[in-house]
Amino acid sequence: MSARLSQVSGHLTNSYGRGLLAGEVAIVTGAAQGIGRSVALLFAKEGAKVVVSDLDEKKAQLVVDEIKKAGGDALAVGGDVGADDFPKKILDATIKKYGKVNHIVNNAGFTFDRMLHTTPDDAWDIIMKIHVRAPFRLIREAAPYMRVKDQKNRENRSIINVSSIAGLHGNVGQANYSSAKAAVTGLTKTIAKEWGGFGVRANTVAFGYIKTRLTQAKEQGAAIEIEGKKVALGIPGMKEPAPDANYPNIPLNRPGEPDEAAAAVLFLASPLASYVSGHTLEVTGGQGI
Ligand SMILES: NC(=O)c1ccc[n+]([C@@H]2O[C@H](COP(=O)([O-])OP(=O)(O)OC[C@H]3O[C@@H](n4cnc5c(N)ncnc54)[C@H](O)[C@@H]3O)[C@@H](O)[C@H]2O)c1
């Protein structure tokens, strides 16, 4: 028992009572792996009850199992964020189990890269649908739980939308993705303005090169199946980062880890960022400055 207790306390921070997000409820989309998984684990470690959502429900359940094993509370909800019935499905499940929602992290996404002159309409449409339309629809569905008029019952609430360095600077081969990730900042800023009066903060986090399935070599064969179509993931010819590799575009001279990406998301969700809204936090190791 004492071993179990010390294991659990090792997972919980002592920096802010029972954690920076103690008692709060967070929905994280695309949380079965990569950055979203790290966000779900870190939020749970900081006391949040986490709704772990992903296209891959089995993998999402594994993240929930991991959270529960460490003494936390989580729920898996499978589904495609782009599906018309997705927002209602996840909000219903969240409210049924936890009765409220404090944070939504719109993280689910993938790339469908082509040079602009060879980008077909379907590659444009699906990237816009997943990265812009889906977050918009999920946030809209959550409006009754976020726009709390009663000032006394207000809790720490925020929306965090995941963007990319490609959305800030453009990127070769990513006209669709860069456009979608740029749109995310407009969406975030509008929420900050419309919902600020209800105490809801809205922020964007723009990642640079984070080591996940999205940034591994395309030749490794990872793919996502979306609306019955297979989309290959990764970057053509990408090498496994060697420990002594140099990254002249990145001042910190290395890629980021998913846990480092998650730490930035935690900051934005936490009371440490209580006066931060409408901001785009670049988590890029300095790339693009
Ligand atoms: N890795 C990077 O360098 C990087 C850089 C900038 C932005 N991003 C963004 O970060 C987010 C997370 O990406 P990652 O690098 O962790 O990738 P990842 O492929 O490791 O994880 C993405 C997760 O999202 C899920 N997902 C994808 N489409 C979905 C859908 N339609 N419905 C539900 N779930 C879906 C996948 O199943 C997967 O579990 C994405 O929005 C991505 O665009 C990543």
From TrEMBL:
Signal peptide: none annotated. The keyword Flavoprotein does not apply. InterPro entries: NAD(P)-bd_dom_sf (IPR036291), Sc_DH/Rdtase_CS (IPR020904), SDR_fam (IPR002347). Keywords: NADP, Oxidoreductase. Pfam families: adh_short_C2 (PF13561). SUPFAM superfamilies: NAD(P)-binding Rossmann-fold domains. The keyword NADP applies. It comes from the Eukaryota. GO terms for molecular function: oxidoreductase activity, acting on the CH-OH group of donors, NAD or NADP as acceptor; quinone binding. One of its GO terms (biological process) is fatty acid biosynthetic process. Belongs to the short-chain dehydrogenases/reductases (SDR) family. This is NAD P-binding protein. It comes from Gloeophyllum trabeum (strain ATCC 11539 / FP-39264 / Madison 617) (Brown rot fungus). The lineage of its organism: Eukaryota, Fungi, Dikarya, Basidiomycota, Agaricomycotina.
